[in-house]
Write a structure and sequence with these properties.
Elements: H1 13-44, H2 47-63, H3 65-74, H4 77-98, H5 101-104, H6 109-141, H7 147-175, H8 177-196, H9 213-226, H10 228-243, H11 250-257, H12 261-283, H13 292-312, H14 316-344, H15 350-379, H16 381-402, H17 404-407, H18 412-419
Length: 422
Amino acid sequence: MANRDPYAALRYKEFNVFLLVRFAMVFAWSMQFVVIEWEVYSLTKNPLSLGMIGLMEVIPAVSLALFAGHIVDQKEKKGLLLKCILGFSVISLGLFLLTWPKIVQDWSKNTILYSIYFLVFLGGIVRAFLGPTIFSLFALIVPKKVYPNAATWSSSVWQMAAVLGPALAGFSINLIGVHWSMCLIFAFSLMALLILTKIKKKPILNPNIGEPVIKSLKEGVKFVFGTKIILGAITLDMVAVLFGGAIALLPIYAQDILKVGPEGFGILRAAPAVGALIIMFTSAYFPLNKHAGLKLLGSIFGFGLCIIAFGLSTSFWISVIALFFSGVTDGISMIIRQTILQLRTPDHMRGRVASVNSMFVGSSNELGAFESGLTAKLMGTVTAVVFGGCMTLITVIFTGAISPTFRKLDLRKDLEEHENGI
């Protein structure tokens, strides 16, 4: 049976190509975000400026999310993904030019800063379409019976790229500087474009092509808010990410608190992804479907504890360990949430459901960055991180107390139905 074969999804050639594309894009995007964080904080020495990076990306990502979901459900997925990657490539090229001393030597710091924010804003537009497109294409490449296994491998590749991207960013800033680091990012985006050509065009499964936008959006939102398990999983993860956004403040910890420089920054930035990657590979052999609700609640509670430990630490290696285990717990949460979404979303609504998910969870990363930057400015960096971790714990306790259905969630029945082709 597919859910007992840890390599079930990898037996489909196009899925392997899909994983390579996803790796290249996540690697480039995560590396770019870290390089931008470093450059912006180096220019301003202001924690609020780090929060502004997240805000500039989240405004268009949230504003366009529902519309993007409608477009994704109406269009051919491979061609749409090609356009998204091309848009990211243009933005990366722009950042490469913005960090070229010969070009910006006569520019003021504010001009450079606002130009970076503008390109980050454009990246938010691209991201509004990118997430739903990848989510929808995923479902067209592998059969339903291997969705859970494919979700595990897809998330594992995501985390692997999230490990290597930030780690390489820290080392490359130290070795070749911000400018040539951006050149490397641009090269990875071009590689993703080339690899994507190996995937064939896919059919459009939406039976309502040409459906009015407003009606389409209402249907998608109604489905999410009417499906309590999906809504609960999305909301819980959103709040945890929103208040647990300590990652956005890592440049401050690396430069001013722990004083470990760009190499230490790279290690700190990669530690959560290493933890998540390990748990994801492990879950391919030991699925998390039994008692999924309790495991999701427990993992996010553990995440909050790790964030508090990191916030209070003044030791580099204790901080690394705390971030590592925050990645372990976050990886469990991600696998369970992605499995819920894939199993319980109809094919013709995947773009819209993924868009609502991006509004709740994906964009909360950037809102969390803004919240962390703002609270760090108002409370101080350490207090802001501890506050975020405490809010995460409170949210988990509240959710578990008021939702017995969520506590009892078990995905084994869903898996059996898909194994039997239902």
